[in-house]
Amino acid sequence: MMSNWKIKLLYDGECPLCLREVSFLEKRDAGRGLVKFVDIADDNYSPDENAGIDYETAMGRIHAILPDGTIIKNVEVFRQVYEVLGMGWVYALTKIPLIGWIADSIYGIWADLRLILTGRPNLATISAQRQKRLQDQQSGRCRLNV
What we know:
Layout: E1 7-11, H1 16-29, E2 35-39, H2 55-60, E3 63-65, E4 71-73, H3 75-84, H4 97-117, H5 123-138
Parallel strand pairs: 1-2
Antiparallel strand pairs: 1-3, 3-4
């Protein structure tokens, strides 16, 4: 099967705001496959298939991968995804150095607070829960939802 994606977007499928953005972008992609969406919260997420970006790193800041293996992160991800989807004008102002720096700074604050703002535990807790769940799956044990 041929793949024509221009950018691979790593997103947190357990973040309600991230899901809203991904849904919007999927609609704009309209089945063209220009953006490959990869849910890092999926238990089958594999760093090996995603330029070595591990779960914790991907959870800290938004990342994307270009077809040549280049890794991008922060607001640059949005710039390039929107550009690929023909909506580059949305983030065009962030190409101006000072405005780009401000946008990256604001995004950094958002990224640091997004878990608490969406009512989720901190990254250490989420990572520990994920690790336990994956270990339980590997050992064949069932996990009760508590």
